[in-house]
Amino acid sequence: MENKRDYPDSRDDLRILVVAEDNLARAGLSSLISEFPGIIVAGQTSTSTDLTENIDLYRPDIIVWDLGFDTSGSLEWLAAATESGVPIVVLAPDADTALAVSYHGVYGLLPRDTEGHILLAAIKASAEGLVAIDARFRDLLLRVREPSQEYIAEPLTPREIEVLQLVAQGMTNKAIALRLSISEHTAKFHVNSILGKLSAHSRAEAVTIGTRLGLVRL
Q1: Which domains are delineated in the chain?
Q2: Does residue 185 surpass a pLDDT of 80?
Q3: Would the pLDDT of 122 be above 90?
Q4: Contacts of 154 (CB under 8 A, 6+ apart)
Q5: For residues 162 and 166, what is the distance between their CA atoms, to the nearest angstrom?
Q6: End-to-end CA distance of the chain
Q7: Measured at the alpha carbon of residue 5, what is the angle toward residues 49 and 16, in degrees to the nearest 5?
Q8: What mean pLDDT do residues 130-141 have?
Q9: Which of the residues 175, 183, 200, 213 has the least number of beta carbons within 10 Å of its own beta carbon?
Q10: How many helices (H) and strands (E) does the chain have?
Q11: Distance CA 3, CA 18 (A)
């Protein structure tokens, strides 16, 4: 994975940008991280602000991102943030979300209830260009990348495969519609059709199944 920024000098404090939509979660996470030795919280922000501007403003070495429980729209912001080249450590609410996040090239992937010393280890690993994945997510991520003998009775159309790829990138129906120059209603129709053909109960599950079937490019 290419990182557009130089890794920080180990003698300097690591600058952290904390991202969370929920104010209390953001404040609590910032308070926790500020107690870590050799680490400072350079800034805090939510996904409703311009993340690119905040990254330029605070110049973080690492971004720590709490996705919260309502991740609608967050994956799209996350995909954009990874383009900055700053390593991102994500706190995910569940395994399905962790799987969806893993396609965006983050450096750390931990549950939201991660203990402080584990978060600290993930931050330090990310600063060295290493990837840190919690054991609770590891088995799932490894399993979906194994060859599968699954098949579906009704294959996805080329357009549906294209839409599924965009879903894997965390795009909302509105974003998919804009990307493909179609109506939001049509985008929603394609997503529902994909869920039905793959017997998936959620977008994240559809991405998981699509990955096993080789329909999603990692």
Answers
A1: 14-143 (3.40.50.2300), 158-212 (1.10.10.10)
A2: yes
A3: yes
A4: 197
A5: 7
A6: 12
A7: 50
A8: 82
A9: 183
A10: 10, 6
A11: 19
